[in-house]
Amino acid sequence: MAWPLEGLIVAERGRTLYEKIWDSRLVAEDEGEALLYVDLHLLHEVTSPQAFAGLAARRLSVRRPERALALFDHGVPTENQQAGAGAVRDPEARAQIEMLTANSEAFGIVRFDMGDPRNGIVHVVAPEQGRTHPGMTIVCGDSHTSTHGAFGALAFGIGTSEIEHVLATQTIRAEKAKTMRISIDGTLAPGVTAKDMALAVLARIGVDGASGHVVEFAGSAVRALSMEGRMTLCNLSIEMGARAGLIAPDATTLAYLEGRPAAPRGEDWRHAVDRWAALASDADAVFARDIRLDGSAIPPMVSWGITPAQTIAIDGRVPDPAAIADAAQRIVAERALAYMDLRPGTAIAGLPIDRVFIGSCTNSRIEDIRAAAAIARGRRIAQGVRAMVVPGSGLVRKQAESEGLDRILVAAGFDWREPGCSLCVGMNPDRLDPGERCASTSNRNFEHRQGRNGRTHLMSPAMAAAAAVTGRIVDLRDL
Ligand SMILES: CC(C)[C@H](C(=O)O)[C@@H](O)C(=O)O
Ligand code: SF4
Question: Which reactions are catalysed by this chain (predicted)?
Answer without folding.
Answer: (2R,3S)-3-isopropylmalate = (2S)-2-isopropylmalate
